[in-house]
Every structure is written in structure tokens, then in C-alpha cells.
Task: structure prediction
Amino acid sequence: MSGNQRVPSQDISAQFINRMSPRAFDGQAVCESDLMKLFEAARWAPSCFNSQPWRFVYGLKNTDEWAPLFSLLMDINQKWASNCGALVAVLSKTVFEQSGQPAPTNSFDTGAAWMSFALQARELGLETHAMWGVMHDRVKETLDLPDDIDLRAIIAIGYPGDPSSLPDNLRERETPSMRKELSEIVFKGKYSKGM
Ligand SMILES: Cc1cc2nc3c(=O)[nH]c(=O)nc-3n(C[C@H](O)[C@H](O)[C@H](O)COP(=O)(O)O)c2cc1C
Result:
């Protein structure tokens, strides 16, 4: 991505503003042992009752497991994700294992695990890009998912590539995205009150 113009409004660790979702990858397969470190980081996320609803299905570039995952991506995502080095379906168990009752926090918990995954990736020189642009009607069958496991996103993972390799319309988007102001998202005491 071109230079990071993100400026945090508070003094925070640089890792939070340096993480981005690039589309330019160098085409190299991700080393499987590095990918395991990302799953390991995700494994330590907090979850309601320590239920650990996150599940992952992965495929490394140039292996048999790649094509089914890649085939699930919408065209617009296939255009750039073809150059990433691994695809990971982030899945979430929607019921508690013990009781079989709905697990209302499963998405929240699995979202936390994905963030750990993404931040650990950067420590290894890898970038991540989540995708919801997926052929959702084919996910269950393609990945052989039971009824109580839902897809949350497919993640493209890889080593950074040259943005000039992207088609014009995607290259233009290869810049850091900005964020709402704290005053728009943080409220003191009650939602309507402001900071
Ligand atoms: C759950 C989720 C789904 C997303 N789906 C797509 C997608 O299908 N295609 C895409 O190009 N980007 C996708 N994104 C990337 C977002 O557009 C990106 O995270 C957002 O614009 C913020 O930019 P940043 O990640 O570079 O900070 C997705 C991100 C998330 C978290």
C-alpha cells in the first residue's frame, strides 16, 4: 500500500494503524508453519464461557485445497486474491457445544480471533484481507460444513506485492482507509449523550 497517512487521535501501538487490507500480493505460497502461528494467535482469543466458537478451513497456494476455496470467491475478489498465498475460511459455531443452545456471542468471539490472526500475520511479514464477497449458497457444500457452523469471512493471506500489478480500478483503492472520529463512536454513560 502507498504511504501510511493514518494518524491516530490518541497515543496507541502502531500495529493498529499499520494493519490494512491490501489487494497486491506477490503470488508466493504462504509457508504452512507460519500459517499455523496465525491459527495459534487466534486460538488464544477470549470467548463467552471460553466456548471458542472459531473454526478454520485453509488452503495453501499450489495445493489441492486451494481451488475449492478460491472457487467460492466472487469475481471481483478473485481478480486480486489469485495472487495471495493462502485462503482461510473463518467459521463460527453457532451453538454451545455443551448445551446445543444458540451461542449469541459466537460472531463477536470469532471476530476477536480473526483480529489476533491478522495482527500476528503482520509480525511475520504477511498481510491479510477479509472477504464477505463469497458465493454463500455454495459454501456449506464446498467446505462440507455441518448445520451449526457458519462462514464469517474468507481471508486472503500473503506476502506484500507491487500495487502496479493490479488493474487500474483496484490500484486506485490501494491506499489506507480512514476512520470515524472517536466522538462519533464513543459515548459517555448513554448512547445519545456524546463523549
Ligand atoms: C468481514 C469483512 C468482509 C470484507 N469483505 C471484503 C470483500 O469481499 N472484498 C474486499 O475487497 N474487501 C473486503 N473487506 C475489506 C474491507 O473493505 C476493509 O477491511 C475496510 O475497508 C477497512 O480497510 P482496512 O482493512 O484496510 O483498514 C472485508 C472486511 C471485513 C472485515
The mean pLDDT is 96. The two ends are 33 Å apart (CA to CA). Residues 20-21, 77, 130-133, 153, 177 surround flavin mononucleotide (CB under 6 Å).
